[in-house]
Design a protein that fits this description.
The complex is a heterodimer of chains A (669) and B (384).
Chain A: H1 9-46, H2 48-59, E1 60-65, E2 72-73, E3 79-91, H3 99-106, H4 114-126, E4 133-136, H5 141-150, E5 157-166, H6 174-177, E6 180-182, E7 205-207, H7 210-214, H8 216-220, E8 224-230, E9 236-239, E10 253-255, H9 259-269, E11 274-280, E12 286-292, H10 297-302, H11 306-314, H12 336-345, E13 354-356, E14 359-362, E15 365-368, E16 376-378, H13 380-386, H14 389-399, H15 401-410, H16 432-438, H17 447-454, H18 464-476, E17 486-489, E18 492-493, H19 507-520, E19 539-548, E20 563-573, E21 583-590, H20 595-612, H21 615-621
Parallel strand pairs in A: 2-10
Antiparallel strand pairs in A: 1-8, 2-3, 3-4, 3-5, 6-7, 8-9, 10-17, 11-12, 11-21, 13-16, 14-15, 17-18, 19-20, 20-21
Chain B: H1 3-7, H2 15-21, H3 24-44, H4 53-72, H5 75-99, E1 101-103, E2 106-112, E3 115-117, H6 119-136, H7 140-144, H8 150-164, H9 169-185, H10 190-211, H11 214-224, H12 235-247, H13 258-261, H14 273-306, H15 310-334, H16 352-370
Antiparallel strand pairs in B: 1-2, 2-3
Classes of the chains: A alpha+beta (669), B mainly alpha (384).
């Protein structure tokens, strides 16, 4: 057979057309492939960098790491708030796995009850993509390892070790330090530090109260990141430790509080409701600030069950209220020193005697003294010593409310202090102007009100911190000390309380009142027994007060008439001659029946701890000294509203009693 | 073997002579492409022969054997089987319309026992053979412009509409374009070609808006602006372009393509295998594979060129058109130049059906080459 012959023109033409067009087809194919090559060159040679970036952002993910929260310590470095390890179980939404099934599998290893399971399923479904939900905290090591072994078969499940806040002293510092808790929707702000994505991290906690809230940003630190390789479903494939960004731990905050004093204060309060604030009279440092009863802040870290919270909130002794700052009470007779100073300022001769016959008639009402049979003629010194009401009634009437108010304000009443934490209530310092502004229905000051004012009752209210500040300023005798709670933040020392102007009163007036207070504890003084510290020559002075609560509005107390609150202010005088008081203390006991029986013994116990922690004083106590001659006065404790103040006779100051470590003491005038 | 020996009657029917007539360079290039596919499938499975690479190699080996066997079949047998195969395909398409399985929202599959397949694949072959058979019997004038052309038009549009109704727009388009290529190669009048192109361009926008299914329209719209919805329907195109672009000149290295290894690339073992290749071997690897494809296309086209029978020419050229369309459409899709349609890269992608179709097609092409001097009497087949 020969080559197929082309017999017809037609066949020849068909072949020719085909050849031409096949050539064209080949050309089109070639063009197409060249175009693909060109596109490849564009993508792979010219746009490489752009796509490399996109590829890397697909491949690598930075997972936020919560920074360790800053520690909170007391003045000696004792830890008040720390972090402890916590084995957590986290579940994230996964495309291939229903959360119900995952949780059912997990229920074989950790307890997950039916109602909680439902809530968790909802949480997981509603969570943002790749944001894990905490299923269980504080797993045991066995549970942790059991789940970790099986984690590869359980997509979306991770068991990791986080940190959780812990308050080793439980309730003692709950009101000052506050607590941290899970971030709420309301905590997240569109801008500012609270817009940080770390807020969404399941192990992140935000400060909710007290120091934790006020210094949240300092304590928080800077979040770090783990560089991880993820697949398209967001599952972690590999970890690149070299790419990690370390977290910066939060700053340490040192408070001026003292663990031992604070714990002892909590102990002595027992079931009672009240507050105690102790201030160092030289520096203004707050050594103790306790509100009782308290609550365990650790409960809030984990999240409180509704019933637990209701139990706390509904308890009549109000553990959630900070009674040192947020509760205001009539200060009662502890205020008489203010009235006395106001009288001196008004030019009243302190030697002027007022005769006390057990009460006085005024404006159609009989104002009684706490001592029915009367104190007899009293000068100012006697009146402070005996807490004679009649004397202060008549003095207050003569000088009027505005002079008293002016002195009270200089001593801290009616104001708040910059101690770093919120929640202070100002209380009320009544004056003619105040009445005009705040009592529109009865804008005129009634002279009878001055009488109550003079003995610290009536409309006057103050919080426990203000009472302590008053005592500290009086005890210091010179400076208008400011209280300080935050000693340092991240090693930077905060402003000292003693960097304050002098009190705007003549020194002899201040000294007179101080001398009067000291006189209270002489033989015949009322606060003798409670002032027996048993600490050698260390003296304790004080002033008690019992306030009648006339109505619910009068203060934070919820008594029904009768003796409502009682307050004691006390300060320790290391030595009479030097007149260098160390510690000022204010104690308020609600429903305490009487300042000398409820508050004063507690003040004594708290004061003892503080004194025994002061190395200079301890050194002096341990020196053999002659016993002071003192005669107990049984009357002191049966008087319902009496000043309580005791001093021990001071021996000469030892020449070399103070160890080098003792803080320098200042000798006021 | 001398030229004179080959001219001896009956000499060309000897098996050994036929085998020697196969274009073995062409076969080698096919093996290289399939080998590249196996290498990539090994990589995307996380350096594992299972589940894809081993299967791919086995399938290719079987298909290669089948291709060589088919190349031995006389061109006149192919010629005679043209209409029956086309008819069989048509019947199956109707059957799938009536009894087919629905998978992933499309009715494409026909199951016989445990064996299931897509009849549209048979039609890819059938349309080429039937049209070649038809044009073999018509004159140049008739092929250029005559009422006879209603027959090829019908032959093309009936299967196209059936497949499009499944809906499998990608395959329908492929059949339509393959048929059109043959009609053009056979000598259609230029005016009609120009008119058809104009009509096509005019009809596309209303078609996209009114006829397409939502997901199909979404694909087209996404293609026009892939970054409009990067995690939704634009995801595939975007991830594929990221894989390509990040490969750079030399690639990230074998087994180190993060886009494919970490599953950002969808369908990494089938439709987007080329993107995996691009990511791990870069521009150099891609161009090498494209050159292999170009070589395969031009060698096959040359076979069509040298065939002495019109049937052989058109059949070979039609099959090359199909193959070329596969390569161009898949390439364009992977590179973000075309919407996502389910067209794999032939020989490179994992998938038995397409490989089988393509290799059977190449069997026919080789048969055309082996029997290029055979004469087919026009009209009636001489063997059957």
């Amino acid at each position: 057979m020969a080559e197929p012959a082309i017999y017809f023109e037609d066949v020849n033409e068909r072949q020719g057309v085909f050849h031409r067009r096949a050539f064209l087809l080949g050309g089109i194919a070639g063009l197409g492939i060249t175009a693909l090559g060109g596109r490849l060159a564009y993508l792979q040679l010219l746009e490489t960098q752009r796509y490399e970036k996109l590829s890397a952002s697909n491949q690598f993910n930075f997972k936020l790491v919560t920074p360790p929260r800053g520690l909170i310590t007391d003045r000696n470095g004792e830890i008040l708030a720390a972090n402890r390890p916590n084995f957590r179980l986290l579940v994230a939404r996964d495309e291939d796995q229903k959360p119900e099934d995952t949780l059912k599998t997990l229920a074989n290893f950790v307890p997950i009850e039916e109602p909680r399971m439902k809530r968790l399923v909802r949480d997981i479904k509603n969570a943002p993509k790749r944001a894990p939900v905490s299923v269980m905290e504080d797993m045991s090591w066995e549970q942790f390892s059991a789940i970790n072994v099986r984690a590869p078969e359980l997509p979306g499940v991770t068991a990791d070790m986080g940190e959780v806040r812990v308050y080793p002293h439980g309730g003692a510092f709950a009101h000052v330090i506050g607590y941290v808790a899970k971030v709420n929707r309301e905590d997240i702000k569109p801008t500012g530090p609270n817009s940080d994505p770390i807020m969404l991290h399941p192990s992140f906690r935000i400060g909710k109260q007290g120091v934790e809230k006020a210094f949240d940003l300092d304590l928080r630190g800077k979040p770090g990141a783990r560089k991880v390789e993820v697949d398209a479903n967001g599952r972690e494939v590999r970890h690149d430790p070299n790419g990690d960004i370390p977290a910066v731990p939060g700053q340490e905050i040192q408070l001026t509080l003292d663990v031992d004093i604070q714990n002892r204060a909590l102990e002595v309060f027992g079931e009672e409701s009240g507050g105690a604030v102790m201030i160092d009279c030289r520096t203004g440092d707050i050594l103790c600030m306790l509100s009782a009863p308290s609550f365990d802040a650790n409960l809030f870290v984990r999240g409180l069950q509704g019933a637990q919270y209701r139990a706390l909130a509904n308890y009549e002794r109000n553990p959630l209220l900070d009674k040192c700052l947020s509760g205001t009470y009539p200060p009662g007779s502890t205020f008489k020193t203010m009235t006395a100073l106001a009288a001196l300022e008004a030019g009243i001769d302190p030697e002027l005697r007022v005769s006390c016959g057990g009460g006085m008639q005024f404006g159609g009402r009989y104002f009684r003294c706490h001592k029915k049979e009367g104190h007899g003629p009293q000068n100012m010194r006697d009146a402070i010593k005996n807490s004679c009401d009649v004397y202060f009634y008549s003095v207050a009437h003569r000088i009027g409310p505005d002079r008293i108010a002016a002195v009270a304000r200089e001593f801290g009443f009616g104001q708040t202090f910059d101690i770093g934490i919120p929640g202070q209530k100002k209380g009320i310092v009544p004056s003619t102007e105040w009445v005009r502004k705040n009592r529109p229905r009865d804008p005129k000051w009634h002279p009878g009100e001055s009488l109550s004012y003079g003995i610290g009752q009536g409309m006057l209210t103050a919080n426990c911190l203000q009472l302590a500040v008053m005592t500290a300023r009086l005890a210091n005798g010179k400076k208008a000390l400011n209280p300080r709670l935050i000693k340092s933040v991240g090693g930077r020392e905060m402003k000292r309380g003693s960097d304050a102007p002098d009190l705007p009163f003549p020194q002899d007036h201040l000294n007179y009142v101080r001398d009067g207070m000291a006189a209270v504890t002489e033989a015949g003084g009322t606060g003798f027994r409670a002032s027996q510290l048993g600490l050698g020559d260390i003296l304790m002075a004080g002033k008690t007060g019992t306030a009648q609560v006339y109505s619910y509005k009068a203060g934070g107390t919820r008594g029904k008439g009768g003796p409502g609150g009682c307050a004691t202010t006390a300060c320790s005088w290391p030595s009479r001659r030097s007149m260098r008081p160390r510690y000022a203390l204010a104690v308020i006991v609600q429903h305490g029946m009487g300042g000398s029986t409820a508050a004063a013994p507690r003040a004594r116990e708290i004061m003892r701890v503080a004194l025994l922690k002061d190395p200079e004083l301890v050194a002096r106590i341990q020196k053999p000294l002659p016993m002071p001659e003192l005669a107990p006065d049984p009357e002191a404790d049966i008087v319902p509203e009496a000043p309580l103040m005791a001093t021990a006779e001071a021996p000469p100051r030892p020449a070399s009693g103070a160890p080098a470590a003792a803080p320098p003491a200042r000798d006021p005038a | 073997m001398t030229v004179s020996a080959l001219t001896r009657p009956g000499e060309r029917d000897r098996l050994i002579v036929k085998l020697s007539e196969i274009d073995w360079i062409f076969v080698l290039f096919l093996c290289l492409i399939a080998g590249a596919g196996a290498v990539m499938l090994f990589s995307v499975a996380g350096s594992s022969w299972t589940p894809w690479a081993a299967n791919h190699v086995i399938r290719f080996s079987i298909c290669l054997g089948m291709m060589i066997a088919l190349a031995m079949i006389d061109i006149r047998v192919w010629f005679a089987l043209s209409y029956p195969i086309y008819g069989f395909g048509l019947v199956l398409l109707v059957a799938v319309e009536l009894f087919g399985d629905t998978r992933l929202g499309a009715q494409r599959w026909l199951s016989i026992g445990s064996f299931s397949f897509q009849p549209s694949e048979i039609m890819k072959l059938g349309i080429v053979m039937a049209l070649a058979r038809f044009y073999h019997s018509v004159s140049a004038d008739q092929a250029r412009l005559s009422w006879w052309l209603a027959i090829p038009a019908l032959m093309i549009f009936v299967p196209v509409l059936l497949v499009a109704h499944q809906p499998d727009l990608g395959t329908a388009m492929l059949i339509l374009l393959t048929g059109a290529a043959i009609v053009v190669l056979a000598g259609l009048d230029w005016r009609i070609i120009a008119g058809a192109i104009a009509a096509f361009i005019a009809i596309v926008p209303p078609f996209v808006i009114f006829v397409m299914h939502d997901y199909q329209r979404q694909r087209v719209l996404t293609f026009l602006d892939p970054e409009s919805d990067p995690s939704g329907s634009g995801y595939h195109i975007l991830q594929s372009m990221i894989a390509l672009g990040s490969g750079g000149l030399l690639g990230k290295g074998y087994g180190l393509g993060s886009q494919s290894q970490l599953n950002f690339l969808p369908e990494k073992q089938t439709d987007f295998i080329f993107a995996t290749l691009a990511e791990e071997f870069g521009f150099v690897g891609c161009i090498s594979v494209l050159i292999l494809y170009a070589a395969v296309i031009f060698m096959a086209l040359r076979t069509a060129y040298i065939s002495h029978s019109h049937f052989g020419r058109l059949a070979a050229a039609g099959l090359i058109s199909t193959f070329t369309l596969y390569v161009l459409i898949n390439g364009a899709m992977v590179m973000g130049l075309a919407p996502v349609v389910g067209v794999p890269m032939p020989m490179l992608s994992y998938g038995g059906t397409v490989m089988l179709t393509v290799m059977i097609g190449f069997g026919l092409v080789m048969s055309v080459r082996v029997h290029r001097y055979s004469e087919i009497t026009s009209g009636k087949g001489s063997l059957l």
